[in-house]
Amino acid sequence: MKQLIVHGDKRVLTSAQIAESFRTNAKAINKNFSRNIKQFIEGEHYFQLSGEALKKFKAEHPNDASLKFASSLNLWTEKGAWLHASFLKGERAKEAFNALVEGYYKMLEAPQTTIQGQAPLGISLENYQQLESRVEKLEEMLKQQVTLHSGEQVRLRNAVGERVHTLAKDKGARPALFRAIYSAIKERYSVGSYRDVKQHELQDALRFVANWGVEAS
């Protein structure tokens, strides 16, 4: 089990611990943070420790080799872990995030009492239902944010290629069409690259590409 870390009243994880869960490395977690820093809110998604606060944290975790040379340290909340899962494309990150919520961030304690023959709960039924609702909302948020994985990117590229070849028999005209379709995709989905189209938008994107140029013709 992961070592329990509480900052304030919230359970948190280090970059190394999140990386372990997502089967990646701390460098990838830190790169996610650097690339998308504007989307992370300190105090909501993470807490950054430095100076005396970091020194105290290191003293409390003397066996953690990853902390030895750290000049600053980020501790990630449940929302922070969700953001990292959304940036680390694919089902593996999503499954790992769900496992973190279930086994770490939910704070379920060991069974203590049995009420009228029901299964024992370490928290009240009302609180448990609230936690379940929160997990469902986070899963839906994650679904809305995950971008195309490599296989889906290939599908979209192939669709663009097929459309270009349908519209232009003259090979010399094809490069301009490629640029035009990719530009239309970026404008339609407000993304910097076709790779950033969201997974839930893939079918719409495929239809859009298949019908691109119909009105113009």
TrEMBL record:
<dbReference type="Pfam" id="PF10552">
    <property type="entry name" value="ORF6C"/>
</dbReference>
<feature type="coiled-coil region">
    <location>
        <begin position="121"/>
        <end position="148"/>
    </location>
</feature>
<dbReference type="InterPro" id="IPR018878">
    <property type="entry name" value="ORF6C_dom"/>
</dbReference>
<protein>
    <recommendedName>
        <fullName>Phage anti-repressor protein</fullName>
    </recommendedName>
</protein>
<dbReference type="InterPro" id="IPR018873">
    <property type="entry name" value="KilA-N_DNA-bd_domain"/>
</dbReference>
<feature type="domain" description="KilA-N DNA-binding">
    <location>
        <begin position="4"/>
        <end position="86"/>
    </location>
</feature>
<feature type="domain" description="ORF6C">
    <location>
        <begin position="127"/>
        <end position="215"/>
    </location>
</feature>
<keyword id="KW-0175">Coiled coil</keyword>
<dbReference type="Pfam" id="PF10543">
    <property type="entry name" value="ORF6N"/>
</dbReference>
